[in-house]
Design a protein that fits this description.
Strand order of the largest sheet: 4-3-2-1-5
Low-confidence stretches: 1-27, 650-655
Helix content: 55-70%
CATH topology of the largest domain: ABC transporter involved in vitamin B12 uptake, BtuC
Mean pLDDT: 83
Number of domains: 4
Number of strands: 12
CATH class of the largest domain: Mainly Alpha
Structural class: alpha+beta
Number of helices: 27
Shape: extended
Radius of gyration: 41 Å
Largest sheet: 5 strands, antiparallel
Strand content: 5-15%
CATH architecture of the largest domain: Orthogonal Bundle
Length: about 650
């Protein structure tokens, strides 16, 4: 009877225990079960054994896993020693710690600190956790966070990122981000891929790609190291070298042998002298009197004696070096072990470099075209005055400076940069037109057909205008700010780009070209200007007033210089010397193109712009030399074509 009662009690106890335990099991979440499964290795915190736990959390697909990994990485995950479960903790006023579920934040009571163990991952484990978190960031619902994750991978890629990136591509809803992920996946495949065929396919996919990232991924594949060996070596050999060739001078080859321990280092002169001084005995060194050690031959003989006695390293003769060089082979070996991979990388880089060269030529052409438009704007006014009037106006650059300062003054009163530029362009024309008319009426008209006096007078006016500008605005550069819509550049690819300001100046140059052609070919003023330019006496006999035409022409040329000043001031420093930087190029443009001809000025500006950029491309570190070469070229050009590219018929041609 007692035996049956004991059995019944045991059964009831087991039933109660199972009923008590059942809710805990039922309430356990998937993340809790996963943590419980790996709690031992998480608590141990060993870099060698931790990877399965991290991979299990990262590969679980549970959104709660990201929270756990972030807490773990931040050292905010604690384990309760009693039940081995993980919690977050908060110290309370009484010195105890409140524990809570790491995901839900549900309170689980209070415990003493000694009942807890803080999980403190070292730097290596935190790196693994960070790599695991990447896949969550790559699949975040916020597109900006996904872009930030891609940027972080690009900045510091790791092999572990490749798997996470591949898993995030298919589920990416944004086409642009998906394309970015695909490109990055191919870049990481090149660097970290395990399958050779995959790496080669990824390399070949970048054939002709101009991105910096593609070249940055391919160039390391062709990194080589130079080795010397007594017997043929195995490996991915890039080149077999011969001592004494341009690729491997004999001195460099022998230094390589020494660095690899294949040949003894030759003592230097200082080392020989030091060794001799340290081994003087009875006024002799190895039997050689010290008094005779005044020549290199004697010192070498004494050193050889010491070497024979084993007291110093052996002397290496030229014959020894030649024998050592001949006894070894020399190679450049790729760091990348796969010949197929390096071959694909070489072919792809060759295709990329070809395309880069074409695009560099295009970029150089755009720069030259932009510079030509600036020179055209700066020179067109000078071309008109010089062609019609035959006046060498050395103050033309100061009209450009006046236009730039006019734009600056307008911006002091009109804070809207777009509106201020719109106002500044016609105002600069008006100001410099009036200044040009005044200069022509007061000075130039009295010096016609006296070129030397005209040159000296206009040079003096130039100096005076510069000093007036310094007195008014000071010597500090003044800002002429471009509108926000002109900020930045039009980027075609990683090689070709051009700033929006340069594009705007190019468009402005085209507008002025069309406007001047219209004025000269479709208006009465243009007809009279052309008549005075070609034959002033005949024009005067037809009722045209050459004096009035000269005044208006000089004013028109000066006004155009003022507009050029506003355009140039948008990207150059506005100072009193601004015009001086363009006066020489303006005269060269006019002379090379053809005096007094708009098409000639355009051709001259184009020639000088392309010539200057071409010289700077081959000699980028010395702009002064580039300008010198350009001037020499122009001097030679004028010897063969003194009237310029497009010669003018009429008075200027006769002159």
């Amino acid at each position: 009877m007692i035996k049956h009662l004991l059995s019944l009690c045991v059964a009831l106890a087991a039933l109660v225990a199972s009923l008590v335990a059942a809710p805990a099991q039922t309430g356990q979440t998937a993340i809790d079960a996963l943590l419980a499964e790996h709690q031992a290795i998480i608590a141990k915190g060993s870099r060698k054994t931790i990877e399965p736990a991290i991979e299990a959390l990262a590969g679980s697909g549970l959104p709660e896993a990201q929270v756990i990994l972030e807490l773990w990485q931040a050292k905010e995950l604690w384990q309760l020693k009693e039940d081995k479960a993980f919690y977050t903790v908060a110290e309370q006023a009484d010195g105890t710690y409140a524990i809570a579920h790491p995901v839900t934040g549900e309170a689980a009571g209070s415990v003493e600190k000694k009942a807890l163990k803080q999980i403190k991952p070292n730097a290596g484990i935190r790196g693994l956790i960070g790599a695991a978190l990447v896949q969550f960031q790559l699949m975040d619902t916020d597109p900006e966070k996904r872009r930030a994750a891609l940027t972080a991978i690009e900045r510091d890629p790791e092999a572990s990122h490749l798997k996470a990136l591949r898993g995030a591509i298919e589920k990416e809803p944004d086409p642009a981000i998906k394309a970015q992920k695909e490109v990055l996946e191919r870049l990481l495949t090149i660097r970290f891929g395990q399958d050779e065929a995959e790496r080669i396919a990824a390399i070949e996919s970048f054939r002709g790609d101009l991105s910096v990232g593609a070249r940055a991924a391919l160039n390391p594949l062709l990194t080589t190291r130079r080795v010397a060996a007594a017997t043929p070596v195995e490996g991915n050999i890039a080149a077999t070298l011969t001592p004494g060739s341009a690729a491997l001078p004999e001195a460099e080859a022998y230094a390589l042998l020494v660095s690899e321990g294949l040949a003894p280092a030759a003592p230097t002169h200082d080392e020989i002298r030091t060794a001799l001084a340290a081994n003087i005995e009875d006024a002799r060194v190895a039997g050689v009197p010290v008094a005779t050690l005044n020549t290199d031959e004697a010192r070498l003989r004494a050193y050889a004696g010491l070497a024979a006695e084993g007291r110093v390293p052996p002397l290496v003769t030229e014959a020894d070096k030649a024998a050592a060089l001949k006894a070894h082979s020399y190679y450049d070996i790729y760091e990348e072990p796969s010949p197929a991979v390096t071959s694909a990388a070489e072919e792809t880089l060759e295709a990329i470099n070809t395309k880069v060269g074409v695009n560099q030529a295009l970029d150089l052409g755009l720069d030259a075209l932009s510079l030509a438009s600036i020179y055209f704007l700066a020179a067109i006014g000078l071309a008109i005055t010089f062609g019609v009037m035959g006046v060498i106006n050395m103050a033309h650059g100061e009209f450009i400076m006046m236009g730039a300062y006019t734009g600056y003054v307008v911006q002091q009163f009109v804070p809207d940069y777009t509106l201020s530029i719109i106002i500044a362009l016609p105002l600069a024309f008006a100001v410099t037109f009036a200044a040009g008319v005044a200069m022509e009426r007061l000075v130039i008209r009295h010096l016609y057909h006296r070129p030397l006096e005209t040159l000296l007078a206009t040079f003096g006016i130039s100096v005076a205008l510069q000093q007036i500008a310094k007195n008014i605005f000071g010597t500090q550069a003044r800002p002429l700010t471009s509108p926000a819509w002109l900020d930045g550049a039009w980027v075609l690819n990683d090689v070709v780009s051009i700033s929006y300001i340069r594009i705007a100046i190019f468009v402005l140059a085209l507008i002025f070209l069309a406007l001047l052609l219209f004025i000269l070919n479709r208006t009465r003023l243009g007809l009279e200007v052309r008549a005075v330019t070609q034959n002033p006496r005949m024009a005067a006999s037809m009722g045209i007033n050459p004096d009035r035409i000269n005044m208006l022409t000089f004013g028109l040329g000066s006004g155009i210089a003022g507009i050029a000043g506003v355009a140039i001031g948008l990207f150059a420093k506005v100072t009193s010397e601004l015009g001086s930087d363009y006066i020489v190029q303006s005269f060269m443009t006019v002379v090379v193109g053809g005096v007094g001809n708009i098409w000639g000025t355009l051709a001259g500006a184009t020639l000088i712009g392309f010539l200057q950029k071409g010289i700077e491309f081959f000699n980028p570190s010395n702009t002064l030399a580039a300008q010198t070469y350009m001037i020499i070229f122009i001097i030679v050009f004028i010897q063969f074509r003194p009237r310029g590219i497009i010669a003018l018929k009429g008075r200027a041609a006769g002159d």
